[in-house]
């Protein structure tokens, strides 16, 4: 049904992700949703828990945080590319959400040298535990492309869970990263955005994906998602070589312990899971 409420939410979220520098006013998003401005605002907030303006701000600034750490474009260019009229207004909004101005956030995120030149003492440390992880059955959506863009797929997954009231059967959110980004071209990277599915039948439009469980190194990372790349450097460049453990031939996955929709970036908790032999 092309004008179902789920479809409208998915269209609008995709439009925001695909056009961060574009006109994302309430009128424009209501047009994308094919609803009146007044009613669309109420529907979006009731179904997602955010106003359209809050969703736009969160998505834009999250994209900026990724670019600040992983991209060489200037702060002025990043501000323009996510739709802020000037760098000053971008810096104020970013500091309000992330607790640091863009330049400071970039400097902190790039504090480490390239992995190839790192020595053991150069890594920032995060706690790692070896656990026996359970088998997990996921209801998922496949993503092909840059890993940092999987946020768009998670937004769609959340919208589907909300519109269909799937929460009673959802046990948490998991991202599975199937390829090595240092080897595979960015546009060919495979990953999955999933929920731990506790129901019987996988919902229509989602795909089943099974995590086998077993012996796993679990690193608990606290902070904005832009810092996850550094956490992986610590896991593979420091912990693993000194652990005496061997990684299994299975992809890493991440378990989100809270949500950026209601958690400050510095308080986000992510478990990075590395299956072991």
Automatic annotation (TrEMBL):
Q: Which Gene3D superfamilies match?
A: Homeodomain-like, Regulatory factor, effector binding domain
Please give the Gene Ontology molecular function terms for this protein: DNA-binding transcription factor activity; sequence-specific DNA binding
The record's keywords, sorted A to Z, are:
DNA-binding, Transcription, Transcription regulation
Pfam annotation, one family: HTH_18
**So which residues are the signal peptide here?**
none
Q: Which SMART domains match?
A: AraC_E_bind, HTH_ARAC
Q: Which InterPro entries match?
A: AraC_E-bd (IPR010499), GyrI-like (IPR029442), Homeodomain-like_sf (IPR009057), HTH_AraC (IPR018060), Reg_factor_effector_dom_sf (IPR011256), SmbC-like (IPR050908), Tscrpt_reg_AraC-type_HTH (IPR020449)
At the top level of its lineage, which domain of life is listed? Bacteria
**Residues covered by the HTH araC/xylS-type domain:** 10-108
Q: Does the keyword DNA-binding apply?
A: yes
- Name-wise, this protein is Helix-turn-helix domain-containing protein
What taxonomic classification does the UniProt entry list for its organism?
Bacteria, Pseudomonadati, Pseudomonadota, Alphaproteobacteria, Rhodobacterales
């Amino acid at each position: 049904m092309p004008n179902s409420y789920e479809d409208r939410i998915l269209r609008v979220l995709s439009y925001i992700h695909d056009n961060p520098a574009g006109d994302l006013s309430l009128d424009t998003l209501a047009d994308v949703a094919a609803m009146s401005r007044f009613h669309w605002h109420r529907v979006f907030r009731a179904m997602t828990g955010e106003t359209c303006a809050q969703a736009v701000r969160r998505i834009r600034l999250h994209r900026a945080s990724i670019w600040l750490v992983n991209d060489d474009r200037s702060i002025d260019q990043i501000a323009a590319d996510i739709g802020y009229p000037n760098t000053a207004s971008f810096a104020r909004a970013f500091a309000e959400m992330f607790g640091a101005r863009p330049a400071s956030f970039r400097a902190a995120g790039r504090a480490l040298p390239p992995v190839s030149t790192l020595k053991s003492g150069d890594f920032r440390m995060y706690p790692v535990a070896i656990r026996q992880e359970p088998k997990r059955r996921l209801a998922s959506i496949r993503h092909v492309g840059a890993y940092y863009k999987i946020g768009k797929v998670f937004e769609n997954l959340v919208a589907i869970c909300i519109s269909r009231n799937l929460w009673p059967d959802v046990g948490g959110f998991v991202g599975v990263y199937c390829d090595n980004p240092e080897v595979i071209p960015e546009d060919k990277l495979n990953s999955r955005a999933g929920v731990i599915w506790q129901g019987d039948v996988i919902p229509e439009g989602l795909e089943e994906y099974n995590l086998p469980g077993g012996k796993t190194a679990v690193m608990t990372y606290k902070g904005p998602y832009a810092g996850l790349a550094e956490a992986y450097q610590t896991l593979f460049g420091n912990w693993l070589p000194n652990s005496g453990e061997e990684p299994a031939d299975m992809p890493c996955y991440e378990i989100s312990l809270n949500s950026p929709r209601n958690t400050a970036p510095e308080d986000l908790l992510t478990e990075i899971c590395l299956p072991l032999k």
